[in-house]
Amino acid sequence: MRRIAILLGVAGLLLMPAAHAQEQETKASKLEGTLAKVDRTGVITLGYREASFPLSYLSKAGPIGYSIDLCLAVVDEIKREIDKPEIQVNYKLVTPETRINAVKTGEIDIECGSTTANKERGKEVAFSPIMYITGTKLLVKRKSGYRSYRNLAGKVVVVTAGTTNEAALKSLNEKNQLGMNIISARDHEESYGLVATGKAEAFATDDVLLYGLIARHKADAELMVVGEFLSFDPYGLMFRKDDAQMAEAVRRAFEATARNRDLLEVYHKWFVRQTPTGERIGLAMNAQLSEIFRALGVED
Prior knowledge:
Blueprint: H1 2-30, H2 33-41, E1 43-48, E2 51-52, E3 56-59, E4 62-64, H3 66-82, E5 88-93, H4 99-104, E6 110-112, E7 125-127, E8 132-134, E9 136-141, E10 156-160, H5 164-176, E11 181-185, H6 188-196, E12 202-206, H7 207-217, E13 223-226, E14 233-235, E15 238-240, H8 244-259, H9 262-272, H10 287-296
Parallel strand pairs: 1-5, 1-6, 10-11, 10-12
Antiparallel strand pairs: 2-3, 3-4, 7-15, 8-14, 9-12, 9-13
Helix pairs in contact: 3-8
């Protein structure tokens, strides 16, 4: 009997790795889309923006920002779901013109930037819950006297190519027959530079990005944000469409950060307090975003 027990014990030990492997194989076979890709490769690639401060920008330490922090919360949720705590996080630079295609083709798995979630884009990609609400305003020189788009008839106004702001301004220009000379720049930093050097009279983009550029360049004495909102732009993290498991992981990540109030902490870290790179924007959360966060689970 003792010999039989020993033999059974040895057999059990021999079978354990096989059973574990079978369990892992069964779990892996149930994974689909982005989660299956990450499980298979051990890598997830995040798309970042170079100059969308404070949401996504490049620092000496690498890509950082509000959107990056939220993306990393999603990565943590994916690690838990696939039971792989050592996933490698890679970063790839994207621009307004390349970001959607980079998601669709699998070049990046999540876009962590300043992207407006709208119906038109929703035909091509999926979005996280709303993480920020902004809208198009104008950056001008203080001494210019320009305070509204109505002052810019016949003037050079720059937009960043591939943004919703570009479409909004062109529509406004045509509707009001202003004759603005609308030019496009590759990214927000280039657009900012055209106004700062006097090559354009105004730069039209989301107000939070304009405030961020002024803070980054310490240009409050020379430049200002003016005018009424010319568009409504709710931001979301972007990932591949028709990926139910990824969508669930993103939703769970947002709800978890809402319940433990990390969502508020991340907001204050980037928009209210001094940022890790030393700037301060001082933008209190607006009522619309507060309501969205409450719906996600943030308690007063």
